[in-house]
Design brief:
Helices cover 25% and strands 30% of the residues. It is α+β, with helices and mostly antiparallel strands. Strands 1-2-3-4 form a four-stranded antiparallel sheet. The protein is globular, with a radius of gyration of 17 Å. The termini are far apart. It comes from Enterobacter asburiae. Belongs to the 'phage' integrase family. Keywords: DNA integration.
Length: 101
Amino acid sequence: MSTRIKYILGHYGGHKRCPHFEVPPMKLTARQVDTAKPKEKPYKLSDGGGLYLEVATSGSRYWRLKYRYAGKEKRLAFGVYPEVSLGKVRISRSFLPKLTR
């Protein structure tokens, strides 16, 4: 791999990635959530900030949030889609920092 490629990918000399080349995370869209199909294994669709939609092999879709509290990784369940919409889950996520203080 060339030196330029290593620099762009953040593997040059142990330095962090160059901020000019970082790609911001893409947020989920309602269409992506609606069209999420089950696969052989459960998988996750990330919305950023620890929020993701877990799609089970049965086709069930669960909203989850991954966060840290007291140095330990925790998971919070918000509910099942479509009972809990993408908008509602994003609003609920915004309250988490206030609850974990």
